[in-house]
Amino acid sequence: MSNLPIFDVAGSAMNAQSVRLSTVASNMANADSVSGDPNTVYRAKQPIFTTEQVGNNPALQGVRATQVLDSQAQPIKRYEPGHPLADGNGYVYAPDIDPVAQMVDLISASRSYQANVEVFNSAKETALATLNMGR
Amino acid sequence: MEGSMADFLGIHGTALAVREQRLQLLAANIANADTPHYKAQDLDFNGALNAALAAQRGGPLEQGNAISTAATNAHYLRPSSQPSLDGNTVDGDRENAAFAQASLEYRASLSFVEAKVRGMLTAITGQ
């Protein structure tokens, strides 16, 4: 019954993928958040995944979203003098977010999450079958 | 008593433990499918099982360690079927298939052990 590390590994991956899903949701939601100041405009977020040892077996690596970094892409400058947030020269700044790339990321994260749920469920069934041995 | 129980279960008890080690590695591969620079790992099942069985003949006290040592020694990095930009060598579909198969193999070993246990129970209770 020591196959509990599987739950830790799959759980860590589900956690990391859900961070990734959240950042994609945040990026999509703020794709149209414009600002009159290029320094305060929303910047796309991206989580950084690193391996993390689970238990005391160095071969058994879980995953962790260690940090969420802001995109370095320059905001897109648009001339809209009628916009209420426009700066003195009539420009507004929008974050440089590619909705297609975000959707691809979303689908990839969602598939990975599902794969880990599958692992979790089959590990659970296996563990239960082991526990019920001899009954 | 421990030693005689392991003898009674024969190869199946050890196989079950080695299969469990392999399931853990495959789960780690699936978990790290999106981690940059992660290398897919696997276990040479035949090698690990033979090494564990050989070590167990040495003495009953070594058993717990023998399996994890044999599993560690049988580790290898599985090469990738196609290159990736971030240096990750996990192939999601292949890992999922391998995990499903390994899970089934674990259940098979489990049912062998279970049959042995049932036989022992029948012998003890006489029913």
How are the secondary structure elements laid out?
The complex is a heterodimer of chains A (135) and B (127).
Chain A (H helix, E strand, L loop, with lengths): L4 H25 L15 E9 L7 E10 L5 E4 L11 E4 L4 H33 L4
Antiparallel strand pairs in A: 1-2, 3-4
Helix pairs in contact in A: 1-2
Chain B lengths: L1 H8 L1 H21 L9 E3 L1 H14 L4 H11 L1 E3 L14 H34 L2
Antiparallel strand pairs in B: 1-2
Helix pairs in contact in B: 2-3, 2-5, 3-4
Keywords (chain A): Bacterial flagellum, Cell projection, Cilium, Flagellum
Protein name (chain A): Flagellar basal-body rod protein FlgC
Family (chain A): Belongs to the flagella basal body rod proteins family.
Brief digest:
Chain A: Its main location: other. The complex is a heterodimer of chains A (135) and B (127). Chain A is α+β, with helices and mostly antiparallel strands and 135 residues long.
Keywords:
heterodimer, A: 135 residues, alpha+beta, two-stranded antiparallel ribbon, 4 strands, elongated, B: 127 residues, mainly alpha, 5% strand, Flagellar_basal_body_rod_CS (chain A)
Q: What does the overall shape of chain A look like?
A: elongated
Q: Say how many strands of chain A there are.
A: 4
Rg from alpha-carbon coordinates of chain B: 18 Å
Overall mean pLDDT of chain A:
91
Query: Can you tell me the overall shape of chain B?
Result: elongated
Strand line-up in the sheet with most strands of chain A: 1-2
User: Ranges of chain B with pLDDT <50 over ≥5 residues?
Assistant: none
Beta-strand portion of chain A reads: 15-25%
Largest sheet of chain B: 2 strands, antiparallel
The total of helices of chain B stands at: 5
Q: Could you tell me which chain pair has the largest interface and how many residues each side has?
A: A-B, 36 and 32 residues
